[in-house]
Each structure stands twice: as structure tokens, then as C-alpha cells.
Specification:
Keywords: Kinase, Serine/threonine-protein kinase, Transferase. This protein is 31% helix and 18% strand. By secondary structure, it is of the alpha+beta class. The protein folds into 2 domains: 14-89, Phosphorylase Kinase, domain 1; 94-268, Aminoglycoside 3'-phosphotransferase, Chain: A, domain 2. It has a 5-stranded antiparallel sheet, with helices on both faces.
């Protein structure tokens, strides 16, 4: 059983910090900058910002050490003046969302078969004893689609506590709308915990040719109820609406759980 990593910096020292902060100050005006990621060299990039968390670096290291799933190698990670920096290798590849509709069916099938194998490998990871719903370090989680007063939430001792959070703390009451009553009954069922990427989109999977070479952006990953991988994957970004047609090919479809989650979103929102 994999050990629970401890939240903290990786390969952090004063010299590394000085070099990285100096490089960012020098290069951020002339290097490609996508979102929160800045290219330091052709092979090394840094993801940084006040919303970046050390948990993401530890998650990538956890996946690298316990699976064969290709993720960026984390070289250094630290927090400085309320801003977190994750220095990692830059994986050379193309996001599969780019040009997906122009791929042959054979090419698509090869990529989806690999992705299915990776998802299955991740879901076979045994949760640590006593693990509820939480991050890889048994700490708070991040997902901008989950309602609440903070972008970070949890951890929760049980799936039921997580579900109660999704409902804004609402408990069962016979005076509630029948659909909400049924949602709470479904939420109170027993769901196993599984390690979950939380946003398996064509916008964060890199490939060279027909080979997946990297899965990036692990900020939404953690230990969740087993259906969460499927239901979050089905919340496709409008930029890759075609992806909804591919999800059932690499994650086991869970129509009942998807209907449950859509009911939750209808009554309690997903933001």
C-alpha cells in the first residue's frame, strides 16, 4: 500500500529559490507563458501563482512513484511570499484535443486504449487505511467546479460528509422537493474510495503520434468516491465538446451516478 506523502516543499534550498525567482523575473516578459506555466528552458517549466498548491507537486510525484502513468518529473517545489512554485520537466507533445476530429478511427482507438489502461492502473491504487475524501496528502482538495465559499475544501472523514458538503450542509427533511430527498438517499449509500484524476480532458493529455506521453495539471486529483472520475470527465469544456463522445470508451460508464450528480448540480450548482 502506498504511503501517504507529507505536505511540504521538494528539493527546496536557498540557491534553487534564488535561481528560479531570478529566472522568472528575467524571462516572464519574453518566454511563452500559458496560464500559470512559464517556460524556463526548452525542457524545464515552472507553474506558479497564489492558487497553485504544493499538493499538486506531491500528487505528480506520488503517481510517478506508484504507477507507470507518464507525468512531468518534479524537480523542485516551494512556497515563497504566499506564491507556490513547481519546477518540472516540460513534456514534448501535442494536446490530443488539437486535431482530434481529424485523426483516423484507428489512431483514436490506440490513444483511448492507452488512456483506459492508465485509468484502470490509477484506480487499482489501494487507499491508505482510514482514508476518506481528501488529497494525496490527506489534506484539502481543489476543484473550481465544486460549490462553496473557498476553492479548497475538505478533507472529509467519509464520502457521506463529502456529499453533505456538495449539498451545502443540507440534511434529509421530508418537506424537501422529492428529487432532493432522493438525491440525499443516494448520497447516503456506500461508495468505495478510488484515486481520481478529476478532470480527464483532451486538454490535459499530451501525445506524440499515437502514443500518450504525458498527463498534466493534477491540481484536481485526490481520493474521491469511485464515481467521481466518470462524472467529472463528463463535464466537458466547451472548447472540446466532442470529448463527451469518447469518455465511455476509457472509463466504465456509470449512468445512475451521472444522473445523481446532474441532480445535485441542478439543485445545488457546480460553481
Amino acid at each position: 500500500m502506498p504511503d501517504v506523502p507529507k505536505l511540504g516543499p521538494i528539493n527546496d534550498c536557498a540557491l534553487y529559490r534564488h535561481i528560479i525567482l531570478f529566472a522568472i523575473a528575467t524571462l516572464q516578459k519574453i518566454r511563452p507563458y500559458e496560464g500559470s506555466v512559464l517556460m524556463l528552458t526548452d525542457r524545464i517549466c515552472v507553474k506558479y501563482g497564489k492558487l497553485v498548491d504544493l499538493t499538486e507537486a506531491l500528487t505528480m510525484r506520488f503517481i510517478s512513484q506508484n504507477t507507470s502513468i507518464p507525468v512531468p518529473q518534479v524537480l523542485c517545489a516551494f512556497t515563497h511570499r504566499n506564491c507556490t512554485y513547481i519546477v518540472m520537466e516540460s513534456i514534448k507533445g501535442i494536446y490530443i484535443g488539437a486535431g482530434w476530429v481529424h485523426r483516423s478511427e484507428e489512431s483514436k482507438a490506440k490513444i483511448l486504449t492507452q488512456l483506459k489502461s492508465m485509468v484502470e492502473e490509477m484506480r487499482k491504487l489501494p487507499p491508505p487505511a482510514g482514508m476518506g475524501v481528501g488529497s494525496v496528502v490527506d489534506g484539502s482538495l481543489y476543484d473550481g467546479r465544486v460549490p462553496g465559499t473557498s476553492l479548497r475544501f475538505g478533507p472529509f472523514a467519509s464520502v457521506q460528509e463529502f456529499h453533505r458538503h456538495l449539498r451545502g450542509g443540507m440534511d434529509f427533511d421530508p418537506r424537501l422537493d422529492p428529487a432532493v430527498q432522493e438525491l440525499i438517499r443516494q448520497h447516503d449509500k456506500s461508495f468505495p474510495i478510488a484515486f481520481t484524476r478529476g478532470d480527464l480532458s483532451s486538454l490535459n493529455i499530451l501525445a506524440r503520434g499515437d502514443t500518450i506521453v504525458g498527463i498534466v495539471d493534477w491540481e484536481t486529483a485526490g481520493w474521491y468516491p469511485s464515481y467521481w472520475e466518470y462524472t467529472t470527465a463528463c463535464q466537458v469544456n466547451p472548447q472540446n465538446s466532442f470529448w463527451i463522445n469518447e469518455i465511455d470508451k476509457f472509463i466504465t460508464p456509470l449512468p445512475d451516478e451521472l444522473a445523481m450528480e446532474r441532480t445535485r448540480q441542478k439543485y445545488f450548482g457546480d460553481y
